[in-house]
Amino acid sequence: MNKYVRHALVHNLGAAAPARPTPRPRFLRRLLRVGLVLLLVALVSGTGLAWWINALVNGSLPQLDGTIAVEGLTEPVQIERDALGVPTITARNRNDLAFATGFVHAQDRFFQMDLLRRHAAGELSELFGKGALDEDRRMRTHRFRALARRKVGMLGTSHREVLKAYARGVEEGRRSLARPPWEYLLLLREPRPWAEEDSFLILLEMFRVLQLDSVQRKATTGVLYEVLPEQIASFLSPDGTSWDAPLRGGPLLGPPFPGPEVLDLRRRPAAFDPLPPVPPPLKKAVGLHAGEGPFEVERARWGSNNWAVAGKHTTHGGAIVANDMHLWLMAPGLWYRAAFVWPARDGRRDNRMFGATLPGAPAMVVGSNTHLAWGFTNTEGDWADLIVLEPASPGDPELYRTPYGARRIEKVREVLKVRGGRDVEHVVESTIWGPIFDRDHCGRKRALRWVAHEAEAINLDLMGLETARTLEEALDVANRAGLPAQNFVVADAKGGIAWTVVGRLPRRVGLGPDKARFDGRRPLSWAEYGGPRWEGWYEPQDYPRIVNPPEGRLWTANNRAVDEPHLSRIGRGNYDVGARAMQIRDALRARPRVSEADMLAIQLDNRALFLSRWQTLLLQVLRPGEDAQREALRREVTFWGGRAAIDSVGYRVVRRFRHHVHERVLNALTAPCRRVAPGFHYVNLGPNVEDAVWELITRRPAHLVPPPYVSWDDLLSDSVEGVRKDVENTMAGWDFDGALRRYTWGRANYVKVHHPFSTASSSLANWLHLDMPGEPMPGDPSNMPRIQSPRDGASQRMAVSPGREEEGYFHVPAGQSGHPRSKHYRDGHAAWARGRGTPFLPGRAAYELELVPK
Predict the structure, then answer these.
(1) Rounded mean pLDDT of 743-751?
(2) Rounded to the nearest 10 degrees, what angle do helices 712-730 and 690-699 cross at?
(3) Is residue 246 a contact partner of residue 561, using CB atoms and an 8 Å limit?
(4) 12 or 811, which is more confident
(5) How many Cβ atoms sit within 10 Å of the Cβ of residue 152?
(6) Short-list 691, 403, 653, 698, CA closest to 525
(7) For the chain, what is the largest distance between any 2 Cα atoms, rounded to a whole number of angstroms?
(8) What is the number of other CB atoms lying within 10 angstroms of the CB of residue 269?
(9) Which residues, 6+ apart, have CB-to-CB distance to 227 below 8 Å?
(10) CB–CB of 123/136 below 8 Å?
């Protein structure tokens, strides 16, 4: 898409035409005179062009003070913004509050909202041209626009009125700008009006972000079980690890490695011969500073941390909720801070809410209503199934088998509008279970059954938290809310805490081909009567809940949270290794009394506890008295500091050593899978493969030494050689000692938060100062509380005690505004990057705007 953005920007800004040949002058004096005149004209023209563009861009800055008369409002609304641009919206009814929320979202973030809805609907090509067609085709498979439109028609009166008011507010906010949002001025496009259904598209985009990647793991697991002996496949895809730290239950350890009767690599089966490595699909090449060149750092697993501590374990006696949601980093950031004030139904007091909203939607997502505070993390449960289609007739590829007889594949024609080109027709094939999503390694079509395709799975019921007062009320709201399934941690003003799951849980029933209970772990055929299927949804009374646990602490970090029977309802899923959750849990337990400052310290915790055993192993491999380069590596690893610190060489060395060991072990064991499915990669097995690798390299079974190595010592030594080459290649031009000194973690984990336009035009990015300042950052993409990679990390941080909001804090990267000429475009970024607490509550009003009905 970027090359078409670049094309649009260059041509829309009037790039100079190629210069014409200049005739030879007769006299040097005339040439000089003409040259001076042309130079003066060029300077004036260039200055005029720059002034004109500046005027256009600045014209889309929002009005923050005064009064604006708008259509669609029933009563006046006050919008006070503090010194960071955070609005406090005071309305006289809930619909006007929704209107004003849409108004400020559009003032500050309309283009961001537009990109989110267009991506969900598969409509980017209309804005950017044919470069976005492939992505649009992928997204049109889900037909989210039609689903969102259908869902709007199913809403009850109160939610429909809120959505209407919000959409009207968005349109009035956009129209209140003297010029269209600056991005459209540069693209020479008109903004498309906001519709009620677009808010559901924003919600569906979050389903895509938080759930769709896990389908790849299911596809990878399917190849694993179809190609490898079952004992090998189950060994490499365990349900848990020794790092598990659930709220209920203990570790789910995987099976032991299989014996030589199952697989003996000493006999070198041809299928296990080494293949050239391929770059993992979950990696990005990241350009670094100081001329260092590209270096690969894994993308963070999008997820989050949250926890709650009961009042009996806090310094002030109030329960505290902490939350930091890990997502992609961009300018502007994903979340939009706000405060809501509107009358309660009893008329004696006001409802008050503080926290983060999602531009494009009218509800508060995380925060506090002064009675309750709450936060989310992605469950990483199992919310989708891949269904292998069985042909019903050899002569008709459009017929497939179902428990109800043969059915014909349905075809829906979608029209993709393309900027600068003709409309493109895209055919979506669909089955009784869902759209045809892909083909497997055997060429069989597979359908996708996903909660995001079901109208019953999306709603606005989260708004019930606005007026909830007790833990029980909050849990009831959570279990009915239509969101991507999340771990919901909540605290009340009385000091109590609770946990449950938000989102609809599909009820999986039936038996698989091996007569085992269907658990959705890998793709299967659903053609047999009584076979795998979904039968409706679990009711709220079937959801797991934990209320006021005896130890007074709750924690989640995208890990498995429970054991049976609830684990089967949430699914075996794509859980993260429990190392992050364990580190949080143990840090909470180590403090008899905690404050909000302690919560921030845990969120910023970059101790490398997960890698400590790898550091010990590496020191065993780097024996004293070896060559000078290995001796230098040993010195750095010995004094590594035990943290993902920006100045640590040893941390980066240990981390790369683990990568090389994983690569050598898992590429060998899964080589047959890559032979039949070239897109297969062990990274997509998920992080729980960690314990399988660790068991192999510590117990060192002779029959599973990966070829071409003759021993496990040989493999580990070659992994060190891989690290040594990394140092030399990354720091080319230096001798080894000089290269190693510069091989710090901060040079790899160099974070620069970009605007979507900056990769399309660096000149534009520099002129408008679109990107946040780049800097090395502590933390790691995985396995410690401070999740941080060059492109992903904490999209927000907060800690708050309901009723004591003035003692809490809130961080977001970048700033409130999406306009680079606004003082609020980046004014919160430094506090986020350095982990400095900023108040949870908005400060004193710096701007006062009143919206009044026309």
Answers:
(1) 96
(2) 120
(3) yes
(4) 811
(5) 19
(6) 403
(7) 97
(8) 12
(9) 672, 673, 676, 677
(10) yes
**Residues 811/831, Cβ–Cβ less than 8 Å:** yes
CA distance 293 to 305: 32
> Of all helices (H) and strands (E), which one includes residue 41?
helix 28-58
pTM of the model: 0.92
pLDDT of residue 576: 93
Give DSSP secondary structure letters for 201-233.
HHHHHHHIIIIITHHHHHHHHHHHHHHS-HHHH
Q: Which residues contact 816 (CB under 8 A, 6 or more apart)?
A: 84, 85, 86, 108, 332, 336, 337, 824, 828
628-638 and 649-669 helices, crossing angle to 10°: 110
* Category of 596 on φ-ψ map: left (φ > 0), alpha (ψ -120 to 50) or beta: alpha
Alpha carbon distance 705, 407 (integer Å): 49
Q: Is-contact 128 8, C-beta < 8 A?
A: yes
Task: Return d(Cα 145, Cα 228) in angstroms, integer.
Answer: 41
Mean pLDDT of the chain: 91
Q: CA 503, 509, 515 angle in degrees (round to 5)?
A: 145
Q: Looking up tokens 């840090």, which residue turns up?
A: 587
Closest CA to 166 of 237, 82, 76, 96: 96
User: Helix H segments across 565-681?
Assistant: 566-570, 579-589, 596-603, 612-621, 628-638, 649-669, 671-676
Q: CA 387 to CA 633: how far, in whole Å? A: 49
Pair 345, 355: CB distance under 8 Å: no
| Residue 295: predicted pLDDT | 39
